[in-house]
Amino acid sequence: MPKVHLRPAFVVAPPLPKGKAKIDYFDNQVAGFLLEVRCTGTSTYYLRYRDKASKIRQVKIGSPATIGLEEARSLAKTLKSQSVIGFDPHEAQNKIKAIPTFRDFTQNKYIPYVKNHKRSWKLDQTILEKRFLRVWGYRKLNEISKQDLPAKSPAGIRFN
To answer: How far apart (Å, rounded) are the C-alpha atoms in residues 6 and 28?
Structure first.
């Protein structure tokens, strides 16, 4: 774990690891900010920090091809300061990943619920499959807004 002053010239052509799969170059300006270099030559920015339980975590910031060094360093400072006050970036990413898609929600939650509570559940299932799942099936629930809803549903129900 060498500590170096990360500069744009270093990031463009970092020394490759010898005899290892990867090597981490820690920045001497921002604690926990590092450049991971793999033996294939690809590199990625990360921030290593301690969470509320003092467990060491690592969050990916991006690759040098997609984000500049100063932008990555600035983002690392922001994430580091947030982790100090108790915000866990890794936990936030997991919450976003846990949001179900519209298809998952309807098949795993909605349809099993209405089967026990509605006599017309087959109509709901048909409408969902023929109309809504085609449009929103792979969208996350938090990505669907009121503006995405039609003024009138295929079943004649008004949304507005």
So the answer is: 8
Cα(128)–Cα(103) distance, integer angstroms: 9
What sign does the CA torsion over 98, 56, 75, 33 have?
negative
Contact call for residues 33 and 70 (beta carbons, < 8 A): no
Quick: pLDDT tens for 70-109: 999 999 999 888 888 878 777 877 888 889 999 999 999 9
What percentage of the chain's residues is helix, strand, coil (to nearest 5)?
45, 20, 35
DSSP assigned state of 13: S
Closest CA to 12 of 38, 32, 46, 41: 41
**Taking the chain, what is the end-to-end CA distance rounded to the nearest angstrom?**
59
**Residue 152 burial by Cβ neighbours in a 10 Å radius (0-12, 13-18, 19+):** exposed
> Minimal CA–CA distance to 46: which of 70, 11, 73, 84?
73
* Predicted TM-score of the model (pTM): 0.64
- Are 13 and 30 in contact by the 8 Å Cβ rule? The answer is no
Residue written as token pair 């100090």: 84
